[in-house]
Task: inverse folding
């Protein structure tokens, strides 16, 4: 049995840009930063950041473009995909991306301070879950 499944939760490093393929499919790609904190053997706190390239298709691409901006929290569930192409210099280039299958949006940026968001009087906002079949992606729709 094989499994190719990724879950990441982090912040967008820039505003997403929505594109449309020649066949009319919507696609967006963006980068998500995730942090890892630990204490080394000398007792010093350390932090490292990883950057993950994410590609979303269809309605999910539209939703991310409409509601998320740089710094917004997002949870992405998807699969890893590596693609290669020949650069202008003739060298073969490779990149590994997360092809998103489900997303959950974090709280809205500027929705209030952490104190306001945890207040018992504040209305609780449900995070939308977007679950679209990845079968709607066709090879001819790929922009690369």
Result:
């Amino acid at each position: 049995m094989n499994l190719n499944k990724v879950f990441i939760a982090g912040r967008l490093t820039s505003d997403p840009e929505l594109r449309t393929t020649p066949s009319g499919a919507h696609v967006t790609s963006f980068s998500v930063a995730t942090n890892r904190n630990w204490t080394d053997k000398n007792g010093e706190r350390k932090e490292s950041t990883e950057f993950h390239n994410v590609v979303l298709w269809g309605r999910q691409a539209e939703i991310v473009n409409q509601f998320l901006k740089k710094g917004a929290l997002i949870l992405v569930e998807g699969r890893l995909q590596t693609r290669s192409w020949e650069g202008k210099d003739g060298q073969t280039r490779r990149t590994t991306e997360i092809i998103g299958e489900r997303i959950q949006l974090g709280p809205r940026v500027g929705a209030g301070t952490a104190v306001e968001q945890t207040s018992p009087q504040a209305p609780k906002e449900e995070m939308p879950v977007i679950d679209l079949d990845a079968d709607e992606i066709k090879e001819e729709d790929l922009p690369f």
Summary: Helices lie at 58-67, 114-118. Confidence is low (pLDDT under 50) at residues 113-119. DSSP finds two helices and seven strands in the chain. The CA atoms of residues 73 and 88 lie 35 Å apart.
